[in-house]
DNA sequence: AAATAAATTTATAGAATATAAAAATATTTA
DNA sequence: TAAATATTTTTATATTCTATAAATTTATTT
């Protein structure tokens, strides 16, 4: 078989299957999806697929570093295909909406004051706040009170 | 009743109960504990306590901002009483060990390049890497191969 | 094309967490 | 300080998320 993902998978000793392909496409199209959303999307193309196959592959692809998992409080694991570009996330406290962002002057953040002797390789940053919509409803609430 | 936590709880309309007190102490003594560890510790002082009460309170206290939840991949929710000091965490990829840290020059990190219009109030940073012990066993492994 | 290796389905199970009604415990009011 | 009220906790049940193992199917290698 031949495909854009063939080499990436082969390098990690993973074969290129229909499920895996569809799953990667689903994550590409809708980054920050959870297992159920991904399952539903794959199912549209491959009706026989099972949720177990989805979990298997999410783990296999995560372990191989082909996809990336984030796990914000208030949510189950979410996945994205953007990796190795050190990007971060903004998440709405109220509705859970997620956006990608670079981090201005992020380099200093890779240097914590106390590394506890750890050999660090990644700084994962989540910016918490209110999205534009929730800002509006929050202000409305305030006015009512 | 009178206690160090009385005012803090009262301010949030939460009453001071034996379970809640013991739970807060347990988290203080062992930061970054999960619900089960906290349950076990509370149980030592209050044998009749249930895991539901623990979950209830973890949620109630989180919502009130009295404790803080972190949820690293590969782990269930963990809790700590250190809040409002903008500290961050170093976590070992291999064994899951967690340490607290300040973030050198953290201020710029509160300014993402694209905030998507969000009104941000917190930057949560997790530093991933290998703890001293796991560095050693990792190097051993490498030598064997 | 056949042999081998890997992935997927089918089936089952476990951990983490939530909810709702009844009982117990705090807090407020009289 | 006792009674009334509000809140929390227990008891019981259920859901969601995720993992595992054996049998079948699909991909890859020979």
Gap between N and C termini of chain A, in Å?
63 Å
Radius of gyration of chain A: 18 Å
Specify the number of helices of chain A. Answer: 5
Specify the overall morphology of chain A: globular
The chain-level structural class of chain A is alpha+beta
User: Largest interface here, residues on each chain?
Assistant: A-B, 43 and 43 residues
Short description:
2 copies of one chain form a homodimer. With 145 residues, the first copy, chain A, is an alpha+beta fold. Chain A contains 5 helices and 6 strands, in the order ααβααβββββα.
Please describe what this structure looks like.
Two copies of one chain form a homodimer. The first copy, chain A, is of the alpha+beta class and 145 residues long. In chain A, 38% of the residues lie in helices and 20% in strands. Chain A has five helices and six strands, in the order ααβααβββββα. Chain A has helices spanning 6-11, 18-29, 35-45, 51-63, 132-144; strands at residues 33-34, 68-70, 78-80, 88-92, 98-101, 119-130. In chain A, the strands form two sheets. A three-stranded antiparallel β-sheet of chain A has the order 1-3-2. A three-stranded mixed β-sheet of chain A has the order 5-4-6. In chain A, a hairpin with a 5-residue loop joins strand 4 (88-92) and strand 5 (98-101). In chain A, helix 2 (18-29) crosses helix 3 and helix 3 (35-45) packs across helix 4 (51-63). The first copy, chain A, is globular, with a radius of gyration of 18 Å. The model of chain A has no long low-confidence stretch (mean pLDDT 87). The A-B interface holds A 69-73, 77, 88, 90, 92, 99-106, 108-132, 135 and B 69-73, 77, 88, 90, 92, 99-106, 108-132, 135. The first copy, chain A, binds a DNA duplex (30 and 30 nucleotides) through helix 2 and helix 4.
